[in-house]
Amino acid sequence: xxxxxxxxxxxxxxxxxxxxxxxxxxxxxxxxxxxxxxxxxxxxxxxxxxxxxxxxxxxxxxxxxxxxxxxxxxxxxxxxxxxxxxxxxxxxxxxxxxxxxxxxxxxxxxxxxxxxxxxxxxxxxxxxxxxxxxxxxxxxxxxxxxxxxxxxxxxxxxxxxxxxxxxxxxxxxxxxxxxxxxxxxxxxxxxxxxxxxxxxxxxxxxxxxxxxxxxxxxxxxxxxxxxxxxxxxxxxxxxxxxxxxxxxxxxxxxxxxxxxxxxxxxxxxxxxxxxxxxxxxxxxxxxxxxxxxxxxxxxxxxxxxxxxxxxxxxxxx
Length: 317
Fold this sequence. Notes:
The chain is α+β, with helices and mostly antiparallel strands. The protein has helices at residues 3-33, 122-128, 152-163, 168-188, 192-199, 204-217, 225-231, 236-247, 251-268, 274-280, 286-297, 301-313; strands spanning 38-41, 47-52, 59-63, 66-72, 74-79, 82-86, 90-94, 98-106, 113-119, 145-149.
């Protein structure tokens, strides 16, 4: 065996040990940075942390484009009828805004569920694409959410960024460089081709991402599929097919999720009553709104909001 082959073999053997060591350090840092349950912002705006000390019930949320890493515990995420288990040794990529149901399924006080999320800037990804040697992986259609095995290329810049969170002056200079490296590693890995499809102008996946952006801005307006398809230079059937492939739901179902999530936000903030919230998000019938809200969130609006406020008010044990 020549010297190069021996070095390659040794590096391959050491990789799992190095990943385990880096994960251990990053887990310890997350426990310090997120001492209490919930979502925690950090000194780097794109990076947020999550902690749960116990398992929970399914909750509905809107996932933005981002990279998710589970360091301890596990979450189950439902996108339409697709189920994903987000646990250590894997990373999750959300390529577009998608409504999901998320549930912590493994956590305890001694070993809390610890996750980090790095928000992705699709424009920056688009700018970086010409410089990336993309893996030659055939992608039939880009899914809005997917999970891949974790590798050291992604873990290393995330750990270095976490180390800088308590050094503001260093973070201001080195943070942008580390973020660029992180995006490069992400595009060079298994999920690169999917992200490239979403970011590449003219691709069908990019057209769907534009449709999603339009729906997010106009969720309270009547939706006419033919008009939306024309805006995206697609046929109605093509829009339906590719929209469902990415989001696991139809445009109408997606719009309904947007409306219900926004209504829930308005009610939680105490900005209006149920009938007003229904009207603001585009429902003509408050009774229809209440029925669909109950089916989606598991309880009528007022009961659901009261339950959420009670959970938020409970002290952390």
